[in-house]
Specification:
Elements (H helix, E strand, L loop, with lengths): L11 E6 L7 H12 L4 E5 L4 H8 L2 H11 E4 L1 H4 L26 H11 L2 E6 L1 H12 L4 E5 L15 H22 L2 E6 L6 H10 L3 E3 L4 E2 L1 H14 L8 H4 L2 E6 L3 E2 L6 E5 L5 E3 L2 H13 L4 E5 L11 H20 L4 E6 L2 E6 L6 E5 L1 H4 E2 L4 E2 L9 E5 L2
Parallel strand pairs: 1-2, 1-4, 4-5, 5-14, 6-9, 6-13, 7-9, 8-10
Antiparallel strand pairs: 2-3, 11-12, 14-15, 16-19, 17-18
Helix pairs in contact: 1-12, 2-3, 2-5, 7-8, 9-11
Length: 391
């Protein structure tokens, strides 16, 4: 029938990347292609779920042109250098098939993708894979690869991009210390992390920051400011130094930090998955610190997209390969509706259902000193994490 997609004789596989970009995405794309091209014609789908939505909703007369716009043939030649760069060659978006222009178009997307592809590999975080999990329940032949620098994805102890982001935070904050120390400054540095403080916790530990705030714990800013002031008073005066210059302080702040009496700092916008855009908490805390202490030698800095920029770390490169291999095994065995994962030291897979409506956060009672705003390090447990319903 004209305008309808018919499953080709040679099997076809689609790959998409959704949500925020990060190092390791291109590596995963490369390893999926190199592992599958002998058995499949492979297409990259551009701009996350936005690509399938636009193709599924295109009219018969426009569908061929829309497919050409939103797909990219992939083979060994197209991907051979991908592992050298961060980001994603397929671009990304936060589009949601369950809320496209206030409509649920997931049925149309599932039908289109199942007609065009034998299998779809979705690489993403809780929103991208959450949508994949729900469409898998509607019959979509999809497998997932976990990706998020927030590391808040349930069902796996690691997600692509996290190690690279922690390394970047460590490098940026360590470099900042030279300026902060030279001027005796107090710096409030904002890291990503909407509901989970993994980036701040591990990035802060790696960079040896003085204090940190995480979303899992309500932050009493007055108490924190008092600790900062006490740092200046503890050090005795030395020749050639003023009291202000004796101590500089770095406070690493999760963007989702909840302030006592204030709550989260919102930008006011909401993405298609219902997430409120956060940001500005470091700036807010810096201004409050100046007002409450009178110390004007304070600054704020938002690390922003620098955290997820650049090439992947060694770990993310290796994990991209391992996750991709497992995803292809799932495709070969018909294990749709599942995603690659790691538990303990073993690569495995887990149902995409576990991603829907749940997040993985720090077990703050075990690993964080809420009174001292510092990590509590346990010799028995490296990872102190729990999985909870997403609020």
């Amino acid at each position: 029938m004209r305008g309808e997609e018919v499953m080709p004789k040679r099997k076809k596989m689609g790959i998409l990347t959704g949500g925020g970009d990060c190092p390791g995405l291109n590596n995963a794309i490369k390893h999926i292609v190199l592992g599958a091209y002998r058995d499949y014609d492979i297409e990259g789908i551009v701009k996350g779920w936005d690509g399938p939505i636009k193709m599924a909703l295109a009219g018969a007369s426009a569908r061929s042109k829309t497919i050409e716009t939103y797909t990219l043939p992939l083979g060994p030649e197209q991907v051979r250098r991908l592992d050298r760069a961060g980001g994603t060659i397929l671009m990304s978006s936060r589009a949601n098939p369950y809320k496209y222009q206030d409509s649920d178009v997931s049925d149309q997307v599932v039908k289109f993708l199942n007609r065009r592809y034998h299998a779809l590999v979705a690489i993403g975080g809780e929103d991208t894979l959450g949508a994949a999990g729900k469409m898998a329940q509607q019959g979509l032949r999809v497998v997932g690869v976990p990706k998020t620098i927030d590391k808040d994805l349930c069902g796996t102890e690691y997600s692509l991009g996290f190690d690279s982001a922690v390394n970047m935070i460590q490098a940026l904050v360590t470099n900042l210390k030279s300026t902060a120390g030279s001027h005796g400054m107090v710096y409030f540095v904002e890291a990503m992390g909407r509901k989970a403080g993994h980036l701040t916790y591990w990035g802060g530990r790696a960079a040896h920051v003085h204090f940190m705030t995480i979303p899992e714990v309500l932050t009493d800013s007055r108490k924190l400011f008092g600790l900062i002031e006490n740092r200046k008073k503890k050090m005795p005066l030395k020749r050639g130094f003023t009291l202000d210059g004796l101590r500089y302080t770095i406070v690493l702040v999760s963007e989702g930090t909840r302030l006592k009496g204030v709550g989260e700092i919102h930008k006011g916008e909401v993405d298609p998955h219902g997430n409120v855009y956060l940001g500005g908490v470091a700036d807010f805390m810096c201004n409050e610190y100046i007002k409450q202490t009178g110390d004007k030698n304070a600054r704020s800095l938002t690390l922003g997209h620098l955290q997820r920029s650049g090439p992947p770390s060694n770990k993310d490169g290796l994990m991209a390969e391992a996750f991709s291999q497992r995803a292809l095994e799932l495709v070969q065995t018909g294990g749709f509706g599942r995603m690659s994962s790691i538990q303990g030291n073993a690569i495995g897979d887990t149902p995409l259902d576990v991603v829907i409506g749940r997040i993985r956060i720090l077990d703050a009672q075990e690993c964080f000193d809420a009174e001292g705003f510092q990590p509590r390090i346990s010799p028995e447990r490296i990872y102190n994490e729990i999985e909870i319903p997403k609020k």
